[in-house]
Automatic annotation (TrEMBL):
<dbReference type="InterPro" id="IPR001830">
    <property type="entry name" value="Glyco_trans_20"/>
</dbReference>
<protein>
    <submittedName>
        <fullName>Trehalose-6-phosphate synthase</fullName>
    </submittedName>
</protein>
<dbReference type="GO" id="GO:0003825">
    <property type="term" value="F:alpha,alpha-trehalose-phosphate synthase (UDP-forming) activity"/>
</dbReference>
<comment type="similarity">
    <text>Belongs to the glycosyltransferase 20 family.</text>
</comment>
<dbReference type="Pfam" id="PF00982">
    <property type="entry name" value="Glyco_transf_20"/>
</dbReference>
<dbReference type="GO" id="GO:0005992">
    <property type="term" value="P:trehalose biosynthetic process"/>
</dbReference>
């Protein structure tokens, strides 16, 4: 079996395990356990200049190869083009995208540096799997270094229609870069359709045939076990006691403007305003760990959510009831699993998402005898797989309020039927299947593309 080389913006810390591991590390756990592998990318540290030689560390059959980035390169590549330009554009938020030629040049410079550092580390039979929008040009840069290995790419976020994406300056250059990959994976058939159209418009019809949807999943059995264990533990018991019998609505998201959190808070406020029977009967817990706190748009979002939380609790709270509990610090994944099992409603309303694994985790966490209700944005990539959810348009606060009322008053028989319709897809389309399907496609792909 050939060695698997994973390339991503950030290489996980070798010491991170289980509940502390990042999402990509969890998703790739099975693939990395089955074969010798190397994980290549940014170390998470900055220096005066970007390193030219990777630092290597080995843990069993897994090698970690990392580069420190120069502070200016980090600012241009990561804070600048990747997060201020690409991220909003890929999430259909072109009005929030900020483009500068200097940032774009820095993005390409770092991808070229990755390729130059990675190429000498590759063995003849290695397969390279690059992940996400930070490293779109990497495949083309590796081809320029003479690399003829099989190269795969997976985009974890949405891909918008061609006309929208190419409104981003240099967008067509990035689409052309994707043609260097042997397999190009996206989350949904809509994403695949959009990307194929972009490649055809850019004159890469042959590459369009290499685009396919590989919906990412979770390992539902292990998450269910974690939820069952945590639900019986001390933290969940203390949390349950604090609810004093009230019904729990729960949301878990990174603090990001794509997650629709202000709209969600507005919808919850509408619930309390329109459906007064829920006063004193419901508590909404929103966990939203701070992300990209050094970016102005994210600081502004945090202020907006602080204001919403204060407004809702100020208007509706009683001395013995706080309707909204809002946290911006991280909570361990296993603890969240226990809280999800306790929650009568899982509230997942992104404005646009590649997949959204929280929705699948909520389904996996439920008690089959008394499951909760998933309230889900129709713009989450998971929506087509989870037809038992209450689907809504997250831009309409009244629709959120109505869905919450329906979920909170739904009889047990309907809750069980809806949950059962989602349990199968969540368990069958797991992370192992995602890895297996992508890698088998890459292994069976034709010989590497000529530069």
């Amino acid at each position: 079996m050939s060695r698997l080389v994973i390339v991503a913006n950030r290489v996980p810390n070798p010491r991170d395990r289980g509940a502390t591991a990042g999402g990509l590390a969890v998703a790739l756990k099975d693939a990395l356990a089955r074969r010798e592998a190397m994980w290549f990318g940014w170390s998470g540290h900055t220096a005066e200049a970007t390193a030219t030689t990777p630092t290597l560390a080995t843990r069993g059959r897994l090698t970690y190869a990392t580069l420190d980035l120069g502070r200016e390169d980090y600012r241009r590549y990561y804070q600048g083009f990747a997060n201020a330009s690409l991220w909003p554009t890929l999430h259909y938020r072109l009005g929030l995208s900020q483009f500068s030629r200097e940032d774009y040049a820095g993005y390409r410079t770092v991808n070229a540096a990755f390729a130059v550092a990675l190429a000498p580390l590759l063995r003849p039979d290695d397969m390279v799997w690059a992940h996400d929008f930070h490293v779109i040009p990497l495949g083309a840069e590796l081809r320029r270094q003479g690399v003829r290995h099989r190269l795969g790419f997976f985009l974890h976020v949405p891909f918008p229609p061609h006309a929208l994406f190419c409104a981003l300056p240099r967008g067509e250059e990035l689409i052309a870069d994707l043609a260097a990959y042997d397999v190009i994976g996206v989350q949904t058939e809509d994403d695949a359709t959009h990307l194929r159209a972009g490649l055809v418009a850019a004159g890469h019809a042959e590459a369009a045939a290499r685009v396919a949807a590989f919906p990412i999943g979770i390992e539902a059995e292990s998450f269910t076990r974690a939820a069952e264990k945590a639900a019986a533990g001390a933290e969940t018991a203390r949390f349950r006691q604090s609810l004093v019998g009230r019904t729990l609505v729960m949301g878990v998201d990174r603090l990001d403007y794509t997650k629709g959190l202000p709209h969600r808070f507005a919808g919850y406020a509408k619930l309390l305003a329109r459906f007064k029977s829920h006063h004193q009967q419901v508590t909404y817990l929103q966990v939203a760990p701070v992300s990209r706190g050094d970016v102005a748009q994210y600081r502004s979002l945090r202020r907006e959510l602080d204001e919403w939380a204060g407004r809702i609790n100020g208007q509706y709270a009683d001395p013995d009831w706080m309707p909204l509990r809002y946290m911006t610090r991280a909570v361990a994944r296993n603890t969240l699993a226990g809280f999800m099992r306790l929650a009568r409603v899982g509230l997942v309303t992104p404005l646009r998402d590649g997949m959204n694994l929280v929705a699948k985790e909520y389904v996996a966490a439920q008690n089959p005898e008394d499951p909760g209700v998933l309230v889900l944005s129709r713009f989450a990539g998971a929506a087509p797989q989870l037809d038992g959810a209450l689907l809504l348009n997250p831009l309409d606060p009244d629709e959120i309020a109505e869905a919450l009322d329906a979920a909170l008053t739904m009889p047990l028989e309907e809750r069980v039927a809806r949950w059962r319709s989602m349990e199968g897809p969540v368990r069958e389309a797991g992370a192992k299947a995602w890895c297996r399907d992508f890698l088998s496609t890459l292994e069976g792909s034709p010989a590497a593309i000529a530069a």
